[in-house]
């Protein structure tokens, strides 16, 4: 069992000290994300295959790895921005933030796997390769993605899941490991209204009063 989190009912300050633009609707934001993510996954596999066949200096590899890096970066920055500006005042906000962290894993984990396999094979046959750029690019992609995945699991998914257990113990959470690997969201059940919309996080009334 994870250790209890101190001051679980206190709100966290915003990550950015300035006001951001108006929020997009959830379905619009999801559509934008997957317009970036799905082509990025496909281009990652395509560039890995074409680079192994034609080399890192070929036009085929450059024409596929460049849009892959651009789309991956845009989806990455979009998710980072949303996580840094997301409100965390209520249980509903915490639930949305936890699902956003799971979606971050959904973006980075496949790229980390593709990068690891591609780099391992390319580095093994680096003596026969016409350019070292091929395996160096995938080494950087793999290291960046796996580090982000680990930090996101430790700093966001584990923390928010434990915190949600404390501030809303009646809320049913889904499979933790499926959320860690980005397969499905941890918070899939709807929040039951107990007379207070969003379960505003307030200090518990049974706290010890200093004498």
List the helices and strands and how they pair.
Layout: H1 26-54, H2 59-85, H3 91-124, H4 133-167, H5 176-180
Helix pairs in contact: 1-2, 1-3, 2-3, 3-4
Descriptive report:
The chain is mostly helical and 211 residues long. The chain has one domain (26-180). The protein is 62% helix and 0% strand. It is built from 5 helices and no strands. Helix 2 runs antiparallel to helix 3. It is elongated. The model is unreliable at 195-199 and 201-211 (pLDDT under 50). The chain crosses the membrane at residues 31-54, 60-83, 104-123, 135-154. Keywords: Membrane, Transmembrane, Transmembrane helix.
N-C termini distance: 32 Å
Low-confidence stretches: 195-199, 201-211
What's the Cα radius of gyration?
21 Å
> How many extended strands?
0
Which band does the percent of strand residues land in?
A: under 5%
Overall shape: it is elongated
The string of secondary-structure elements, in order, is HHHHH
The helical percent reads: 55-70%
Described by strand count, sense and barrel closure, the largest sheet is:
none
Task: State the helix count.
Answer: 5
| Mean of all residue-level pLDDT scores | 81
Number of domains: 1
Secondary-structure-derived class:
mainly alpha
Keywords: Membrane, Transmembrane, Transmembrane helix
Can you describe this structure in just a few lines?
The chain crosses the membrane at residues 31-54, 60-83, 104-123, 135-154. The protein has helices spanning 26-54, 59-85, 91-124, 133-167, 176-180.
């Amino acid at each position: 069992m994870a250790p209890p989190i101190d001051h679980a009912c206190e709100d966290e300050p915003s990550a950015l000290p300035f006001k951001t633009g108006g929020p997009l609707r959830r379905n619009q934001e999801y559509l934008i994300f997957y317009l970036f993510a799905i082509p990025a996954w496909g281009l990652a596999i395509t560039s890995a295959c074409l680079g192994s066949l034609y080399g890192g200096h070929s036009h085929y590899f450059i024409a596929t790895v460049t849009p892959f890096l651009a789309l991956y970066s845009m989806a990455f920055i979009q998710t980072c921005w949303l996580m840094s500006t997301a409100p965390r005042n209520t249980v509903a906000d915490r639930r949305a933030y936890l699902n956003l962290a799971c979606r971050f894993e959904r973006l980075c984990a496949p790229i980390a796997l593709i990068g690891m396999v591609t780099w391992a094979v390319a580095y093994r046959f680096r003596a026969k390769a016409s350019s070292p750029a091929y395996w160096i690019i995938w080494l950087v992609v793999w290291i960046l993605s796996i580090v982000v995945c680990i930090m996101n699991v430790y700093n966001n998914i584990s923390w928010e899941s434990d915190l949600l257990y404390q501030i809303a113990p009646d809320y049913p959470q889904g499979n933790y490991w499926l959320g860690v690997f980005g397969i499905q969201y941890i918070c899939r059940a709807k929040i039951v209204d107990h007379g207070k919309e969003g379960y505003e996080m307030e200090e518990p009334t049974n706290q010890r009063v200093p004498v």
